[in-house]
Amino acid sequence: MVEIKPHAAHWGSFDAIVEDGRVAGVRPFARDPSPSTLIQSVPDAVHARTRIDRPYVRTGWLRGERRGSLRGGDAFVPVSWDQVTRLVAEETRRVRAEFGHAAILGGSYGWSSAGRFHHARSQLQRFLGLGGGFTTQVTNYSYGAGMTLMPHILGTNDVIQGKVTDWPSIVKHTKLMLCFGGLPLKNALITAGGAGAHEYVPWLRQVAAAGVRFVNISPFRGDAPDFLQAEWVPIRPNTDTALILGMAHAILAVGLEDRGFLSTHCTGWEKLRPYILGESDGTPKTPEWAEAITEVPAATIRRLALEAAGLPTMLTATWSLQRAEHGEQPWWMLVALASMLGGIGKPGQGVVFGYGSMNGMGTPRLNLPSVSMPAPRNPVGTAIPVSRVTELLERPGEVLQYNGRDIPLPDIRMIWWAGGNPFHHHQDLNRLLRGWCRADTVVVQEPWWTAPARHADIVLPATTTLERNDIGSSSSDRFVRAMHQAIPPQAQARNDHDMLADIAEALGFRDRFTEQRNEDAWLRHLYDRWRAACARIGFDAPDFDRFWAEGYVETPPPEEEFVLFSDFARNPEAHPLNTPSGKVELFSETIAGFGYAEIGGHPRWQAPAEYLGASAAARFPLHLLSYQPATRLHGQLDQGRVAAANKIRGREPILMHPADAAGRGLSDGDVVRVFNDRGACLGGLRLDDGIRAGVVAMATGAWWDPAGDGLDRHGNPNVLTQDVGTSRLGQGCAAQSCLAQVKRFEGALPEVTVFAPPAIAEEAA
Q: Which pTM does this prediction carry?
């Protein structure tokens, strides 16, 4: 018997084809104009050899080897659900009693499920909050520095993650689009919460057909699709701030800055202008000055500046641009350039961060909320920027400075992780592992034997989304999708809500956690909350039973194009920004008042410690960029057919310019060793003349497969990336500031072992 079950994932809505209790295949959602190929890996992941079949406990932990013991080498002992529920409850009670609630790190971070009820982070943090509290994380790896900066500068994060100037406005009004980091197609496969419609590519084609001219300012030509016919400006990585400053100087030199906008809508221009001209530091930021840093010809910088000043121009930067040392600076300077052009708030003009970083950015939509799980208050007030996890584990009792605050770091005794993979997201994985091993106990809820599960003490097998009912929803997509359970839970896997409810019962607060609702009652409750919110803004959504039967709700498109900051542009006094001045803050007294020497009160060029212009490049002469993959979502689906087909001899590909390969005696398809002082990994060489010389690039997300000598056998670039904050202001991820060397791997090629289960010991008595 064949059954068709509607479903959704971050890589898109789809129908699961079920035969004899197994997911035999998938087909795209009928309303999706440009479905993702990633859905083809779904059956492989659901029925993978790496599925965790039952609860397990690390043998060393059972022997009493807790804090300081090296995780990742022990075998695991299978235990029953009753046993593991008791063990987890007892350990949670002990840690809270002996060390306090802040000693538990609720480390759930990541995309986890597109379903809004069975969302691992929401479930775990609800459980930990109701149980007394926990240390949590704020911001994200994707744009953490930018999301801390923008409220100071523009008073909102809408310019990054909200409803931004939409594609219809760009089609009608834009003539030139300067794209720092390009407009990569691969990121259009993904929408947090799921996409009923992948509309990024169709809209981008409409923009190109309207005659908009594109400029791809990136070390990689492939960051703009061929159909855009974009001009490629192969900039040296991490030097975008210098390029933008050079453009600003070129505009000032001929008096084309919008003085009216700068005087009425901005504050701090009188301090930024002297810096650009060199009056405050003796160094004019001319295009020639910028050429020496960026290796972009001064004539190109000057031409782009004057073209932008003479045409309706949209400036955009990908999220990845700020994942670097001093990552706040290029975004801040791009806001300043948009202000000089006077385009902020005008149709088809201004600045947006994130076109091309995720599907849904710029898609026309009503300003509706997504279906969401209500979160209880966390009684513990400690929260760190997510990219500072290793520092949290390394420095108990010390202080972390972030965004003007001093955060005392608690002594973490218990790490509890669900939904997400820190050994994918985080940098300098060997250092992270040393910090990870400082905890007494690590609990991980996972469907698969990923790196967090392999380096845990207690492993709780979680269901995949296909094994439970849920609702897929995203505020950046027009569809809400019913996610019907397709197959029974595999082996002894359980959903996060049910396993946590049992642990909550052992700790005495089951009813507060469940609110006496089962799965069906919760789904109806969440949907009805969303339906009521829609009604308040004029959209009449169908009732739950109709939604569930039909499989989706489609919200109508807006009647008018949307332009971000249009009210502010029209009347800044009546519609001020949520900044101290009510204006665009080109100089921020607040940031200057923090006293952070590395950030300053206005955007400025600061050379990273790791880039091709640094002295460190003498030892490690290649700039390694780590990008989001086209064959999976972060580390999800790495065990699937789409990701496997892209690997070279089982290793993650590394892109290199043919000239760099020739100088090292390397050929396409070679397995190479990529290394620096932090670590090493293997990769499969793929030559590409569309990457600038001196730069190599490797997708993130290959499951970490460390050998005993510290070599990652599979190709995870985060063994190489440095774990430093962008600055004390943003404390964001700085993965894109990374120097390395590449050589041919010599000797017998080690087997990739990460797609097989770890060693399993005999069952405990």
A: 0.97
